[in-house]
Amino acid sequence: MSVFALMIAVMLAMLDNMIVGTAMPTIVGELGGLDHLSWVVTAYTLTTAASTPLWGKTGDMYGRKGAFLTSILIFLAGSVASGAAQTMAQLIGFRALQGLGAGGLMVGAMSIMGELVPPRERGKYMGMMAGVMSFAMIGGPLVGGTLTDHLGWRWAFYINVPLGGIALAMVVTLLHLPARRSQGSIDYAGAALLTTAITSAVLVTSWGGTEYDWSSPVIVGLSALAVAAAAAFLLVERRAVEPVLPLGVFRSRNFSLMTVIGFLLGFVMFGAMTFLPLYQQTVQGASATNSGLLLLPVLLPMMVVSVITGRATTRTGRYRAYPLIGGALIPAGLFLLAQLDVGTSRVTSALYMVVLGAGMGFLMQLTMLIAQNSVELKDMGVASSTTTLFRTIGGSFGVALMGTLFADRVHDSMAESAAAAGGRGGAGGGGLSGDGAPAQLDAASLERLPAAVREAYEYAVADGTHVVFTVAAAAALLGFVATWFVKEVPLKGADGASEESPEESPDSTDPSTRAEGTVSPV
């Protein structure tokens, strides 16, 4: 039953953004502050990313149960405060608090899973975690729309309270982990430098090409600050007694590869989830209210494959074939999606999405499993938080880069169409922004445009989609290359037997490290 509590926490972390995204138009209508809308997302993302490695290290040093309970309480406090917000400024601040707690939810769940369940059995439960995540991504927009329409947008935040309360009660009463108290001190300098580097990087990816030009002093300055803070962080961590991110974990080839693959997986996954609905709504005329169902051809195979792969890994103790298969399917699916145009049917695009979803299913949880299997038990939180962090940052970079490329291609295509029609006025004029693109992208606005302008915009979006998925396919090919270097290290079974090599999986070399955390997961 304790694993069920962990799954609720994972669902909370995944469900929140999906629900809130659906409620945002209503929130802006009531609170105003359209110019600051992006900060509702940025504040949450920023504190989540910055706190992720800190939660992992705190759990390693002082006990995972206490850190996990604290993160749930902070997340729930932020949820209640966000639901009660009276201004956009308040909502942004409370979302930052909520994100601070969210940073510990996923890391805490994965770290505790690593301590409760031996590596050989872990694949089955991580497959179930992937299923929960996929369910949240599918159901989130539908739940958010229903709550907003019938109970009001504030319930998009209040819904977290009963779910979080159940998880909190189950963790307190059912989860029993050994107490832990580190003799070392907290690496404050390393934590500050890492937070600065992450914050600067996230702001660059969030603001670059949107709030500010990529060549603006703000973006250039933040980029320089991120690089300088990262360099200083590496120097400090070499000397720290209890580093917030022990650099020694990167000596494991598999761990280092998982951080790279996780970064690229986040790059691809978040980009696909952002631009596929845009293409389907704009070019294929799908309804925005069904945005969760639009992604079903991606999410359903991802969920099914994750569960099957997890069970197969548990049964055999081997996994190397799965990253290879997933690494091949992802760029194949993205290359197929790059062929989408104005004439592509929904059935065809859905088949392409199935290929991508299956590929992500092979890698989604295995990156975490292999990373955890490559470190000592005392560094389980660091392994979980580092893998999660790199995936998050990869997603931020992916959405930012693809968004810039998409917008540039759409604008260029609209300008070309306007020029071919004898200028913007010849293309219909009304409803266009200064660069020839429609001023608003929603379906209702597009329907009001002249037929020639609407058709030109559909072609422009198809062109932008082609560019986005071509770039994503190229990034995914790098991930495929990385999967070939993953070393097969058989996972340890529940009985303690293992064929693992000490240098690749230190946590299996000392039976005492496993014994202290062995608790029945159900």
Question: Which key terms come to mind for this protein?
Answer:
73% helix, MFS_trans_sf, cell membrane, transmembrane helix, disordered C terminus, 522 residues, membrane
Structure description:
By secondary structure, the chain is mostly helical. Helix content is 73%, strand content 0%. The protein contains 19 helices and no strands. It has helices at 2-31, 37-62, 64-83, 88-116, 119-150, 155-158, 160-174, 188-207, 217-239, 253-282, 291-294, 296-316, 321-337, 346-363, 366-372, 380-420, 443-447, 451-483, 511-515. The longest helix has 41 residues, at 380-420. The radius of gyration is 23 Å and the shape is globular. The model is unreliable at 423-436, 438-442 and 494-522 (pLDDT under 50).
Structure described in brief:
With 522 residues, the chain is an all-alpha fold.
**N-to-C order of helices and strands:** HHHHHHHHHHHHHHHHHHH
Largest sheet data: none
Poorly predicted regions: 423-436, 438-442, 494-522
Specify Rg, calculated over alpha carbons: 23 Å
- Find the count of extended strands (DSSP E, 2+ residues): 0
- What is the molecular shape? globular
Q: How large is the count of helical segments? A: 19
Helix content: over 70%
State the distance separating the first and last CA atoms: 5 Å
Mean pLDDT: 77
- The portion of residues forming beta strands comes to under 5%
Class from helix and strand fractions: mainly alpha
